[in-house]
Structure formats: C-alpha cells, structure tokens
Amino acid sequence: MTDAPAYGFDTLQVHAGTPPDPATGAIQTPVYQSTAYQFRDAAHAARLFNLEEIGYIYSRLTNPTVSALAARITALEGGAGGICCSSGHAAQIMALFPLMAPGRNVVASSRLYGGTVTQFSQTIRRFGWEAKFVDFDDPGAIAAAIDGDTRAIFCETIANPAGHVTDLDAVAAVAADAGLPLIVDNTSATPWLCRPFDHGATLVVHSMTKYLTGNGTVTGGAVIDSGRFDWAASDLFPSLSAPEPAYHGLTFAGLGPMAFTFHSIAVGLRDLGMTLNPQAAHYTLCGIETLSLRMARHVSNARAVAQWLEADPRISRVSYQGLASFAGQERVSRICPRGPGALFTVGVKGGYEACVALVDRLTLFAHVANLGDTRSLIIHPASTTHRQLSEAQQVAAGAAPDMVRMSIGIEDPADLIADLDRALAAA
Ligand SMILES: *Cc1c(COP(=O)(O)O)cnc(C)c1O
C-alpha cells in the first residue's frame, strides 16, 4: 500500500491499491488473466521462493488484480495487510488456519450467519477444531468459555439474522485479557459503517459477495490483519512464532506486522488453494468504488422501511436497531455511528402462513437466500434455510415461524413500502 496523504474513505474506495497500470497507463486496473509470471533469472526465482523478495510466481498465491483488491480493502479497514480468497466461507477458514490445530477451539458468538453456524458446528470438526457458541452480550460468558485450547474469538459486527450490533470494545477487552486474537466478520457493516480495528479487533474477515461487490455478481472473501497482535508473545501460535520447515526455518512472526498476511499467502493460499480469480476481483474492485454511496442509501432505506413496518398493525415486531424506539442507542452510535446496516427481521401477526403468503406476493423484493445486494431481498427462514429444525430450535436460532428477514436495497423507499403494503394486504 502506498503511504501518501491520509485520504478520506471516499477517495480510498476509488484509488487505494490501484495506481495506473505501470505497463499501459490503464486507469481501471487490468484483469491480469495470467497463471504464471516470468522470472528475470534463476537468482530472482530463488529469492522469490525464499520469500526474500516479493513478486508474482503463480496465481494460486498472488495475482496483480487480486493483490490490488486486497490492498484496497486493507486501506479501507485501516489494516497492515490482507489477502483475498474465493468466498466468505473460505476467508473464515483462512483466518482460523494459522491459529488452530487439532484439539483447539474458537469461542464464537451464538448470533452468526447461518452458513457460519454450520461451518463452525459441523465441518471444522473434521479438522479436529471445535467452536463454542456463547452470548456475546455477556462478556463474562465469553471469558468463562475460554480454556487452554482456545485460539480465537469470533463474532460479526452487525450479526445475522436480526441485525444485532455487537459490542466489539467489550469483546476485544475479553480477548486481550486472555491473550487471544479477535476475528470480526465485518460483512454486514462494511468498513464504511464500522472499522473493527478501531475497536480492538485483530483480524477482519469479509464475504465480498455481499456489500463490497454490491450487485450480487461474484463470490469472494477477504482476511485483513491489523498487524498489531504479537504472535510470539506466547507459545499458543506456533505456525506464526516457530520456524517453518517449508521455508528453511523462516519464522513468520519475524516479519512483524506482515506476519499473518505472508503466512496466509505462502502457506494458506499455497496449500489450501482457496484462491480468488482475477475476473471476480475486477467486479469487486468496481463495486467498492461506490461503497459509501450505496451504504448510505441502504441505511436510510432500511430506516424508512423499518419505521413504516413498526407502525403497521399487521406487524408484531421489527428488530432494526436503527429505530428510535430501540433501547441500545449508546452501543449502536459507538460501534456503527452511521447506522446499523440494512438487515433486520420482522414478525408478521398471521404467523407461518402469513409469512409464506407475504414472500409469495411481493413483486419488488426478491425471495432469495442472500443479503447485501442493491436489490431488496426477503427470506422466510422457517420455510427455507431453517426448515430442518424443530419449532423450538427455530425460535432459539432467531428464525421463529412468524418471522421474515429483510435485506433492504437501494431502490426508491416509497416503492419498497408500497410493495410491502400490497403484499401484506393480500396475505
Ligand atoms: C454470506 C456471508 C458469509 C459467507 O460468505 P460466502 O461469500 O457466501 O461464502 C459469511 N458471513 C456473513 C456475515 C455473510 O453474510
């Protein structure tokens, strides 16, 4: 990343990481559709493979278009370094991989994206990793769940599915007391609404599939490192603090603030192979150019729709924490001063049947299992993503039968409200 003046967010989202192409002067970052990069000579190749010189070898590790994207997100998050990978779920594995080992665990918030709950409660067990889910509104519960095998703390800034804002300062204090890194999934907030490093996070992960790309075209993920965690302060993180046999005994922690990023490229991407392709990186770079403009509109639309729903007699509750009636204003204004995103849940008085009729009768809202699109999206979890669960499990997961989740897009708010009004009348 270049160092130049301390530009504001709107400038960085257009320029960071992407100076004009040195070969052609192209101002839009070219899609470097190349698998491999020619070495200048044998000595150059040897230095690259020894990590003594930084350069491109093979696109499973690094690619110029993908690196430009990583540099831009790193700048927006205020991190020291970062990598991009093939999806948000890949980013979560890439973030945990250098920290975990068989028998180790991550203490995770019980409020998470549904796919993350499955990844953490089922799939990571095959690596011998475990997740312990606790209520992150209770710092004492987080501290109590930490044991000698815990290697990371994990939460979302604006948590699924209800749009609950996490008190990152309080969670980071618990992590710091335990000498553990805090990983924050900043997908639903984006760095425009919250920069988790300003609240003590160690690593930020993103599903770029959502707001960063913004238009529902490609999947992608990112892991950004604050560069502030001292991996060598304990013997908990040997992948970073002990000599790496694959690099002639190099110790990644010796690379200082770039330790985690270099490990992610030289070991994580090299051996796990969850690489982002340069075409997808191009779409995401284009999307990020308008991130702040879109997020401002997402938030103001979400406020307008949530206010209208809250006042409607057919609605029993609205979870949006940007409503004036919400009691936890202090936390929202501290963590997300520009507003708590555009994701919330809505209770419909007619229960399961009314929810199904509502999603079927909406014409503008798309009925899909996604969030963070320019389009407004709705899903009824009890009949889709959470239909395998019992009613008691659905309620516990925040997916009660009478509840729909909305992700508000950037359309005309009056049109969204009119669509909801018509569909509720018919339901
Ligand atoms: C979508 C999402 C993910 C997973 O990202 P993919 O790109 O679909 O793999 C993780 N966390 C959150 C908060 C998400 O919204």
Automatic annotation (TrEMBL):
It comes from the Bacteria. Its cofactor is pyridoxal 5'-phosphate. The modification N6-(pyridoxal phosphate)lysine is found at K210. One of its GO terms (cellular component) is cytoplasm. One of its GO terms (molecular function) is cysteine synthase activity. One of its GO terms (biological process) is cysteine biosynthetic process from serine. Belongs to the trans-sulfuration enzymes family. This is O-acetylhomoserine aminocarboxypropyltransferase/cysteine synthase. The lineage of its organism: Bacteria, Pseudomonadati, Pseudomonadota, Alphaproteobacteria, Rhodobacterales.
